[in-house]
Amino acid sequence: MELTLALSIGVLTGSGVWLLLRPRTFQVIMGLSLISYAVNLFIFSMGRLGLATGKEPVLRAGVPQDLAHYADPMPQALVLTAIVIGFAMTALFLVVLLASRGLSGTDHVDGVEPPEGMEPDDDGARP
Description:
- The chain has helices spanning 2-20, 25-45, 73-104.
- By secondary structure, it is mostly helical.
- It has a domain at 1-52 and 69-104: Helix Hairpins.
- α1 runs antiparallel to α2 and α2 packs antiparallel against α3 (73-104).
């Protein structure tokens, strides 16, 4: 379980950084969203999930009331709050992107489209 979680955090981070370096504003916003999801998963994984160790998520009768036997609820609350705030910020960024595209006619990060012959190929090389 830990390997799967670590790999998913790595894939989300790598994909987010790749999208963050793209020339279009929409791709940059999606990259920031993926990086925030990776950070949320990382924080969530630090809270002693108890998936592999059999720790209880809530207090139960018969289990000693000691933190070693329970999952930490604080990272779960922080991640839930971060998800809500991240969704609101992504929606706000998309509205600003649409307004900017309506005013400038492009969603390029620099605000202007590169000339026709200067656009990179699929492999990133310029002609």
